[in-house]
């Protein structure tokens, strides 16, 4: 029928986003061995040289395609297992042991690096520009000190979804109720320059006893900012029956293919005063489990949905199209970036109608549960 809404699946971008991408905790790569990371449609090799610097190159030798991640660190260089061509962190071939000289054009793809908050970041740009260090994510001064627990770091491979699915969550108020089992009582966005921020307050749903943010005894205040296309810092204040905990969540990803990416997240908890280490570790573990469950709830949706370029929205859905315009800047040549991609944009979702319906639905769910089994109802 002519008036039937159709889904536009669009086409997957042919390039990968310009900006800083996190490969994981820097300490992971500091053992003097080569490490393999899938990213940007290829394999990367990561190693630490004798000066302690972390280096990242394309993982395949420009000689005859040997896998450098299966090679060996020799001095400051990574040696190919195929013919022992040795590559430096600057991308130049430094030595070919069996040859008189190194070819002048013996150069491979190098990725500039930075270590921020104990994590290794690399710069990717299809135009080949130098890394923009002015837009690195901010350092968190108290993290990696005794004031916070060490990072609890986790990795999940996502297949069948473009990483924009992850970004869409920044503007998606309603999914917190349906997917993460929380009442979002306040929800606001600000997009400006290379940052996109979500401000949210929520309480747990009493009709859901497990999963996500479902604890009815908890209230959550969240400020989550993307610094570029793939690295988000989420400041969380959790109030559980009057006991307040400050949590920092890192949510980052690196695209591995046109419709796949590696999701990584890390959690660090501010140590409450007066508690012993065992109790603090227990609290950190519980929050790691809770927010980890939240990511897995999203993953289940991503792996079973289709891409939609023309989503049909209601006013409570938030500024999805404006967010996507902001995100588009990272897939556009710098000279072609338009003001509407970077100009400041603010939007607050009115959650009144949604919460009226949701609270009524939850009350009905609890009433049904009480009728079926009165002993299961929480008082």
TrEMBL record:
Name by which UniProt lists this protein: Rieske-type oxygenase
Domain Rieske: 20-122
Source organism (scientific name): Nocardioides silvaticus
GO BP terms: cholesterol metabolic process; lipid catabolic process
GO MF terms, alphabetically ordered: 2 iron, 2 sulfur cluster binding; metal ion binding; monooxygenase activity; oxidoreductase activity, acting on paired donors, with incorporation or reduction of molecular oxygen
Entry-linked InterPro entries: Cholesterol_7-desaturase, KshA-like_C, Rieske_2Fe-2S, Rieske_2Fe-2S_sf
Domain of life: Bacteria
Keyword terms of this UniProt record: 2Fe-2S, Iron, Iron-sulfur, Lipid degradation, Lipid metabolism, Metal-binding, Oxidoreductase, Steroid metabolism
Assembly: Homotrimer. The two-component system 3-ketosteroid-9-alpha-monooxygenase is composed of an oxygenase component KshA and a reductase component KshB.
Cofactors named for this entry: Fe cation
Any coiled-coil regions, as ranges: none
Keyword NAD tagged: no
């Amino acid at each position: 029928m002519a008036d039937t809404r159709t889904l536009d699946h669009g086409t997957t971008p042919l390039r990968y986003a310009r900006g800083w991408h996190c490969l994981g905790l820097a300490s992971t790569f500091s053992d003097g061995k080569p490490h393999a990371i899938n990213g940007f449609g290829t394999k990367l090799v990561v190693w630490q040289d004798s000066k302690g610097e972390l280096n990242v190159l394309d993982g395949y030798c420009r000689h005859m395609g040997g896998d450098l991640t299966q090679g060996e660190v020799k001095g400051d260089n990574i040696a190919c297992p195929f013919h022992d061509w040795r590559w430096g962190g600057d991308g130049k071939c430094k030595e070919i042991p069996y040859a008189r000289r190194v070819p002048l054009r013996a150069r491979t793809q190098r990725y500039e690096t930075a270590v921020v908050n104990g994590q290794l970041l690399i710069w990717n740009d299809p135009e080949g520009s130098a890394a923009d260090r002015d837009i690195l994510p901010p350092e968190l001064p108290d993290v990696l000190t005794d004031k916070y627990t060490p990072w609890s770091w986790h990795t999940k491979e996502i297949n069948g979804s473009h990483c924009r699915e992850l970004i869409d969550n920044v503007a998606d108020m309603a999914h917190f109720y349906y997917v993460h089992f929380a009442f979002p009582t306040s929800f606001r966005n600000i997009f400006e320059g290379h940052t996109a921020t979500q401000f949210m307050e929520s309480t747990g749903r009493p009709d859901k006893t497990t999963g996500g943010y479902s604890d009815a005894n908890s209230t959550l205040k969240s400020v989550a900012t993307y610094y570029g296309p793939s690295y988000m810092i989420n400041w969380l204040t959790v109030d559980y029956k009057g006991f307040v905990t400050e949590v920092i969540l890192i949510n980052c990803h690196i695209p591995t293919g046109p419709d796949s990416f590696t999701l990584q997240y890390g959690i660090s908890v501010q140590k409450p005063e007066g508690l012993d280490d065992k109790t603090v570790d227990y609290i950190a573990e519980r929050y790691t489990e809770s927010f980890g469950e939240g990511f897995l709830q999203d993953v289940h949706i991503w792996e079973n949905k289709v891409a939609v370029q023309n989503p049909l929205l209601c006013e409570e859905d938030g500024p999805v199209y404006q967010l996507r315009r902001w995100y588009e800047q990272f897939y556009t040549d710098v000279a072609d970036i338009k003001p509407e991609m970077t100009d400041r944009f603010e939007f607050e979702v009115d959650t009144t109608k949604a919460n009226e319906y949701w609270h009524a639905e939850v009350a009905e769910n609890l009433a049904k549960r009480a009728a079926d089994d009165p002993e299961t109802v929480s008082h």
